[in-house]
């Protein structure tokens, strides 16, 4: 796309340069004619004077148009530069967004892994709690047996 822009700009630029060169040459010719007329101060007929006046007016118009072309060329160059900057900023923003998305995915994976580890620890804690509860029940049963056996011994020794 940029090559296409450069190609069309190059062709357009060459046409403008050619037009400006032609206008510059015409201006020079008009200046020479004006100097010649001033030096010679010759009377000319109305038709020649009209043509010279028209040519002079055209020279002034050409000068204004040349300035306008130069202004437009500068504006075009500025617009092209701004577009290039905007494209570069867009690429940077897209790269930053992609990096942020990758970071978010990485954090999500870390959270999922942490959750899995937490679940495993919870399962282990539940198993330990069940084991402790079972042993606690066994201890209470053994205490009850000991008390029962201990109570029979004291009755049999006292009776």
Would you write up a description of this structure?
This is Tropomyosin. It comes from Dovyalis caffra. Keywords: Coiled coil. Residues 55-117 form a coiled coil. The chain is mainly α and 159 residues long. The chain has one domain (2-158). It contains 2 helices and no strands. The chain has helices at residues 2-40, 46-158.
Brief rundown of the structure:
The chain is built from 2 helices and no strands. It has 159 residues and is mostly helical. It has one domain (2-158).
| Alpha-beta classification | mainly alpha
Global shape: rod-shaped
Total number of distinct structural domains: 1
- Helix run count: 2
Report the mean per-residue pLDDT as an integer.
Answer: 86
Q: What sequence of helices (H) and strands (E) makes up the elements?
A: HH
Proportion in helices: over 70%
In percent, how much strand structure appears in the residues?
under 5%
The rounded distance between the terminal residues' Cα atoms is: 114 Å
* Rounded Rg: 50 Å
Low-pLDDT ranges:
none
Main sheet summary: none
How many beta-strand runs? 0
List keywords for this structure.
single chain, 159 residues, mainly alpha, 2 helices, 96% helix, 0% strand, rod-shaped
Describe the protein's topology.
Elements (H helix, E strand, L loop, with lengths): L1 H39 L5 H113 L1
């Amino acid at each position: 796309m940029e090559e296409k822009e450069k190609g069309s700009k190059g062709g357009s630029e060459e046409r403008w340069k050619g037009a400006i060169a032609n206008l510059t040459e015409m201006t020079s010719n008009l200046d020479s004619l004006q100097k010649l007329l001033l030096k010679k101060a010759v009377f000319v007929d109305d038709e020649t004077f009209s043509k010279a006046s028209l040519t002079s007016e055209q020279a002034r118009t050409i000068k204004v148009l040349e300035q306008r072309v130069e202004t437009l060329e500068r504006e075009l160059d500025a617009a092209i530069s701004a577009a290039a900057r905007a494209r570069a900023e867009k690429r940077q923003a897209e790269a930053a967004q992609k990096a942020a998305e990758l970071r978010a995915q990485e954090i999500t994976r870390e959270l999922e892994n942490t959750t899995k580890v937490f679940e495993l620890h919870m399962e282990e804690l539940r198993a330990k709690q069940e084991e402790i509860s079972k042993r606690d029940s066994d201890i209470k049963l053994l205490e009850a047996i000991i008390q029962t056996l201990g109570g029979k011994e004291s009755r049999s020794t006292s009776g």
